[in-house]
């Protein structure tokens, strides 16, 4: 403690008083409820914006977030199928790779 | 005149403060510019097995003095280089110096292709395959499995579901089994405020930012304290190296595969199924009492991510005759990185493993 500069001693004293109630608040039911509501509202707003912008973007022949999401899902599904097929094909063990 | 006001002492102090101010300026500029970041994960290794994004690494060691080898199973939400942070601060290097043959199972970075990965994918497929590959590479019949954090949960599941898995010893570090003991981090999903699907992104996984923010919310003022400590030690090159490496790791989470996350929330968090003995995977009950090998449960007293009540009950849940606990005055990351790890945690773990091994 004696080695610490005065500003740090003051900071630590304040932190010791402030941190416990802030941590308790962040893990409280009230904060959880508020966070969950704001999360859902944000998601809903994003989806609403996506819906509204979809028509405009499609008119301009541009992909929307939904299009990208669908494509991602399809690519992932193809990748998974490919992996399943690979897993059924006996493979020679790779030569160890040096790192 | 007091000693501190002696002209020599004053001059010495002024010189020291000027020197520190100069170093502070230099290190501050380097930090802001993002240059001089320490290189992480530098211990030489070879990839001995690979399946999609999962890789099993074997660290090079010309001085293996103990058998069987150790296979480390890392968590699903963070980067494995925390176990091999940088030279001088590496859990892996410590185990190598202790004469152990060390492997590490790294899950890679999940994307949409991994979104369908379930807990079974890891516990029933990846870990047994990696264990087989490690045994073949090391030429041994069995091995020591070491799970860290959620990697410990996966290791437990693998050993409980495949009783024939040749695991001689099981070491679990900061491994949650009583998810009701993780009140803070599970707050948003435990009581249905958010459903798992609300959290998944377009790839079907939990985005790394969500993982990072969940950890940040556990100690909201910690970041400010860290900046204060940074300012205090900005002159210290050694401190800066550690701070930057650790800072990089804490901001470097990976997506949590969506299907495994759903199971984690529904079974482990909401039903506390590991603790209650009601966990079912693939319509098969998971019985932790099927684990009979010696178990070491490493718990950290200051762990705010996996607090003591979440990790402590483990020895009582397994069927092992020998289930030891190593309780350490450290935090979650302090178990594997930093000065305390090198002085206390890692010697304790390596010592237990060596006691349960034989000369090579």
In brief:
The complex is a heterodimer of chains A (99) and B (360). Chain A is mainly α and 99 residues long.
Folded structure, characterized:
The complex is a heterodimer of chains A (99) and B (360). With 99 residues, chain A is an all-alpha fold. Helices cover 77% and strands 2% of the residues of chain A. Chain A is extended. Chain B has a single domain, classed as 3-Layer(aba) Sandwich (Rossmann fold), CATH 3.40.50.1820. Chain B is built from 14 helices and twelve strands. The radius of gyration of chain B is 22 Å and the shape is globular. Chain B is of the alpha/beta class and 360 residues long. Chains A and B meet through helix 1, helix 2, helix 3 and strand 1 of A and strand 1, helix 5 and helix 8 of B. Strand 1 of chain A pairs antiparallel with strand 1 of chain B.
What general form of chain B does the structure show? globular
Tally of individual domains of chain B = 1
The chain pair with the largest interface is:
A-B, 36 and 36 residues
What fold name stands as the CATH topology of chain B? Rossmann fold
CATH architecture of chain B: 3-Layer(aba) Sandwich
**Strand numbers in spatial order across the main sheet of chain B:** 1-2-5-4-6-7-10-11
- Report the C-alpha radius of gyration of chain B, rounded: 22 Å
Which secondary-structure class do the elements of chain A indicate?
Answer: mainly alpha
């Amino acid at each position: 403690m004696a080695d610490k500069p005065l500003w740090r001693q003051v900071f630590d004293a304040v932190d010791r008083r402030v941190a416990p109630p802030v941590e308790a608040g962040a893990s409280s039911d009230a904060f959880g409820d508020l966070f969950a509501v704001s999360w859902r509202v944000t998601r809903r707003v994003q989806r609403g914006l996506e819906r509204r912008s979809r028509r405009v973007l499609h008119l301009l022949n541009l992909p929307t977030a939904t299009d990208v999401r669908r494509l991602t899902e399809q690519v992932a599904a193809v990748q998974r199928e490919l992996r399943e097929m690979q897993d059924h094909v006996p493979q020679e063990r790779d030569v160890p790779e040096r790192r | 005149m007091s000693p501190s006001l002696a002209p020599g002492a004053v001059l010495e102090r002024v010189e020291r403060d000027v020197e520190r101010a100069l170093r502070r300026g230099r290190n501050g500029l380097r930090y802001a510019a993002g240059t001089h970041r320490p290189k992480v994960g530098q211990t030489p290794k070879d990839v001995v097995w690979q399946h999609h994004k999962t890789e099993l690494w074997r660290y090079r060691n010309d001085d293996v003095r103990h058998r069987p080898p150790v296979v480390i199973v890392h968590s699903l939400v963070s980067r494995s280089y925390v176990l091999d942070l940088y030279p001088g601060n590496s859990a892996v290097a410590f185990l190598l110096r202790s004469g152990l043959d060390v492997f590490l199972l790294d899950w890679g970075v999940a994307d949409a292709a991994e979104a369908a990965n379930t807990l079974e994918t890891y516990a029933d497929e990846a870990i047994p395959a990696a264990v087989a590959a490690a045994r073949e590479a090391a030429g041994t019949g069995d091995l020591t499995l070491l799970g860290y954090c959620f990697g410990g949960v996966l290791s437990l599941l693998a050993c409980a579901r495949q009783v024939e898995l040749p695991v001689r010893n099981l070491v679990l570090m900061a491994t949650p089994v009583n998810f009701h003991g993780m009140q803070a981090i599970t707050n948003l999903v435990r009581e249905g405020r958010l459903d798992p699907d609300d959290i998944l992104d377009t790839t079907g996984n939990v985005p790394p930012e969500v993982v990072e923010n969940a950890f940040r919310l556990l100690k909201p003022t910690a970041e400010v304290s860290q900046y204060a400590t940074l300012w205090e030690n900005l002159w210290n090159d050694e401190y800066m190296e550690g701070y930057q490496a650790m800072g990089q790791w804490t901001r470097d989470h990976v997506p949590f595969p969506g299907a495994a996350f759903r199971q984690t929330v529904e079974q482990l968090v909401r039903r506390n199924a590991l603790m209650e003995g009601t966990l079912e995977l693939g319509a098969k009950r998971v019985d932790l009492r099927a684990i009979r090998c010696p178990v070491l449960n490493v718990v950290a007293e200051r762990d705010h991510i996996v607090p003591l009540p979440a990790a402590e009950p483990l020895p009582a849940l397994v069927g092992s005759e020998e289930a030891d606990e190593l309780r350490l005055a450290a935090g979650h990351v302090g178990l594997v990185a930093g000065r305390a790890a090198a002085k206390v945690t890692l010697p304790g773990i390596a010592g237990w493993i060596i006691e349960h091994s034989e000369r090579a």
